[in-house]
From TrEMBL:
Name of the protein in question: UBN2_3 domain-containing protein
PANTHER family associated with the record: CCHC-TYPE DOMAIN-CONTAINING PROTEIN (PTHR37610), RETROTRANSPOSON GAG DOMAIN-CONTAINING PROTEIN (PTHR37610:SF80)
Top-level taxon: Eukaryota
Amino acid sequence: DPAQPITIILDGPNYLRWSSTMKSFLKGRKLWRIVTVDKHASVKRQDETDDSFADRLEDWDSANQRILTWFTNTYVPSVNMHFSHFDLAKEAWDFLASRYTSADLAHQYQLLSIFNRLRQESGQFIDEFHSQMSYYWGLLAISEPKWHSISELISEETRRLSITSQQSPFITAVTQRPDNSKSPRCTHCHKIGHTVKTC
């Protein structure tokens, strides 16, 4: 159905699945750049005639309105009521992202809970169960935060350890001392390795 291009209806909790499917659909129609505003037609090029600019602006506006219609037709009414004031597909997309990705941790917890409860039912084929697991695993992968590369994390860890050892030679010396009876003991917290003055 041209009016409803994807079968997933956004109800809030399924935002990640909806946005991933909608993004793929728009990329397949070469319309994703309109959502990211890489492809904007509001500025006239120097070598462009007035008629050519008007045609290009009309084409861009038509595509923008088509995307907004697709968005509107794939929301439940409670989500849909927020979109009457958006004129640009990018504005609507950004609003949805800010509204629903703030709950990523809760969503990840929900997915992990579902994933943890998954069991192969009696009489269920292994292929069907595997597809079910793969579906939730894919949703979980989409919701994961974008972490730094392993090499960046290792570098940061090394840097912090280096700073700690440079700034705290006393702590390093104390931890290397085998006899705790010779180490100072704090009279406030009763821990070994410092005094009440440095507690």
